[in-house]
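Researcher: Next sequence.
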Amino acid sequence: MISVVRHQTPGVSGVTNISLTVDLGSAPVPERRYVADVGTVILAHEGARLVFGQSKVSGSGLRSLIVVHMSAYGAHQFLRSTPDMLKTAKKFMQQNQLTVGSLTEIGEEPNQTVALAANLIAASYSGTEACMDFYHASPFVVMQVKAGGEFAADPVVRVSLPMVLLYAICEKLETMKAQLLSPENEQAPENEQE
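Model: Next structure:
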């Protein structure tokens, strides 16, 4: 189980709002691992798709690709958890004269393409290395937590990537924030991650 803190606040309409602070540091590490050297973010009707790929060793094109489908709510919650990390990452890049990674336009999917779903992300970096751990909390779990039950999320995949690429992905998500459905208007899990 993942440790979680429940917050109850009275709403304007008289309904009590429940929000959760989820500690993904206590979540199990995803067993699936993927190493990416290219990535991008695509706006989708239901949210965003985070796309990660591996370049071929020789020649052009991609060897493989994973596409992580994120709800708009999940993307907003991830962005709420990143300001401190991005601030220190930006300082690190300036001190080491690193430029923000460039996002790759994916023209054609390679034969080895896998789609996954996630609505929680834990991201971190150390030096020039970074990783993003993706988790999925089902609607059943959300209903269970609302009734006072425990919170659980399935580990989906850990993506290892260059820190400058992680920074570029976060920047791109931030620019798309206004286009993503606002969390206040979406029927979504009432949780936040830190």
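Model: The first strand starts at residue 4 and ends at 10. Confidence is low (pLDDT under 50) at residues 183-194.
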